Amino acid sequence: MIETKEKVPPPSDRDPAMWFSPMEAQTAPSPGRASPLMVPIRSLGANHRARIARHLLALEPHDRYLRFGFAANDAQTQRYTDSLDFERDEIFGIYNRRLDLIAMAHLAFDADSKRRDCAEFGVSVSKTARGRGYGARLFDRAAMHARNAGVGRMFIHALSENTTMLKIARKAGATVERDGSESDAHLLLLPATLDSRLTELVEEQLAQTDYRIKVHVKQFRDALGGVMARRPDARNDQRDSPK
Ligand SMILES: CC(C)(COP(=O)(O)OP(=O)(O)OC[C@H]1O[C@@H](n2cnc3c(N)ncnc32)[C@H](O)[C@@H]1OP(=O)(O)O)[C@@H](O)C(=O)NCCC(=O)NCCS
Fold it and tell me: Is 228 inside any structural domain?
């Protein structure tokens, strides 16, 4: 179940009352959902694979169990990361100022291009970054991307005990069907509009800019740290140097 989860066939007719528009959700959040945080969520490419692995391998065993649906060991987690298809799927991430990947989401599309009406969502947030709304924001971001990619339904396969994930899905308007220890959540998506496409474009640009700033700040800090670390040596060198 780690990557190839069964895809649900697209609905024959969609119930407009259940349609979801991530953009509307941002401007008019549902009552009870945390404030619509402006979180810089960026799309990740294959050059982020090592950081994705670091993030997933740092998850505690129970979190990996919730994330993948089974107790994935290090080798299985690494295999999942190595097999991520950045061309077919969309991977989203949130970085902190130290450039640690503190949250990531995987929106998986069906390999069969004829069944691209459905996409599957999986997410994880580092323990220290939970409860800040990142999980919900990644869900909204993925739903917006799926919608703009022409997908009609986003699907989440979760363990029934995963009340946090199911709460995120329910609050976004998904229908949750429980089947014993496992649950499936389905979110019907509105067709894309010019507005939804522009919103995604702007959000991605802002997130890329935020990332570049973090890279520069980190480089500056590292360089400054290096200079500071060398300073005592430099003083010693001066003292020892012939006058
Ligand atoms: C599920 C997970 C991604 C949630 O991430 P998060 O960033 O902490 O979630 P959010 O902060 O967006 O919280 C979403 C909602 O759940 C609630 N919540 C958060 N932690 C909770 C907990 N331990 N118990 C119950 N509710 C909780 C929040 O209060 C929020 O509700 P609100 O909108 O009413 O305020 C995170 O817990 C995680 O990585 N778990 C391990 C992996 C996993 O289960 N992945 C999902 C399977 S695909």
Answer: no
Tokens linked to 186: 């389905």
Atom 12 (ligand 1): residue with closest C-alpha?
133
Ligand 1 atom nearest to 69, measured from its CA = 47
Residue 100 forms part of a structural domain: yes
Mapping DSSP to helix (H, G, I), strand (E, B) and coil, where does residue 105 land?
Answer: strand
Euclidean distance between CA atoms 166 and 178, whole angstroms: 10
User: Who has greater pLDDT, 152 or 5?
Assistant: 152
* 69 Cβ closer than 6 Å to some ligand 1 atom: no
Q: Is residue 89 part of a domain?
A: yes
Q: Which residues constitute the domain of residue 138?
A: 17-220
CATH number of residue 132's parent domain: 3.40.630.30
Judge whether residue 23 has pLDDT over 50.
no
Nearest-CA residue for atom 9 of ligand 1: 135
pTM: 0.83
Largest distance between two CA atoms of the chain:
88
State whether the beta carbon of 5 lies less than 6 angstroms from ligand 1. Answer: no
What tokens were used for 196?
Answer: 């939804």
Does residue 8 belong to any structural domain of this protein?
no
Q: Which atom of ligand 1 is nearest to the CA of 156?
A: 48
